[in-house]
Amino acid sequence: HLPTGTVIKCQATRSRSQNRSLARKLLAEKLEDAQKGDKSRSAIKAEVKRKKKASKKKKANRKYRALDDAKEEEEEEEEVDSEGVENGDRTDGGGGLGEGKSAC
Fold first, then answer.
1. d(CA 25, CA 21)
2. For residues 100 and 40, which has the higher predicted lDDT (pLDDT)?
3. Which are the contacts of 65, defined by CB distance < 8 A and separation ≥ 6?
4. Residues 22-39: tens digit of each pLDDT
5. How far apart are CA 34 and CA 36, in angstroms?
6. Which H or E run contains 89?
7. Rounded-to-integer distance, Cα 17 and Cα 15, Å
8. Shortest CA distance to 28 belongs to which of 46, 20, 16, 15?
9. Model pTM?
10. pLDDT at residue 75, as a whole number
11. What is the mean pLDDT of residues 73-96?
12. What is the b/e burial string over 1-39, where b = at least 16 CB atoms within 10 angstroms of the residue's CB?
């Protein structure tokens, strides 16, 4: 592009006409970016893509944080249960008689 001095080279295919067409599209995008800045179509697309990626990452972090919290709670419950058994604590009421049994 002579006025701006921008040069685009494209060798995506073996066909010269297809490469020229792709190069013109790339040149048009670059010129639009230079002219409009943040208001250009490609800048808006990039911003939307960045926001989606951030949202996806945030959602994944919430998911794994919830899984870690649940796992820690289970481990704490297991520790409490194992401490109770080691100390000789009974969970059946302590009387030594099972439910439905009476001492005659």
1. 6
2. 40
3. none
4. 999 999 999 998 899 888
5. 6
6. none
7. 6
8. 20
9. 0.48
10. 81
11. 65
12. eeeeeeebeeeeeeeeeeeeebbeeebeebbebeeeeee
The first and second tokens of residue 93, run together, are 């009421």
User: Residue 71's pLDDT is what?
Assistant: 86
Closest listed residue to residue 60, CA positions, set 50, 71, 52: 52
Greater confidence (7 vs 76) lies with: 7
Nearest to 32 by CA among 45, 20, 21, 19: 45
Nearest CA among 28, 56, 22, 24 for reference residue 42: 28
- 10 neighbors 22 (Cβ within 8 angstroms): yes
Which amino acid is it at 13?
A: T
Q: Does an H or E element contain 7, and which?
A: none
C-beta separation of 7 from 27 below 8 A: no
Sign of CA dihedral 37, 42, 44, 50: negative
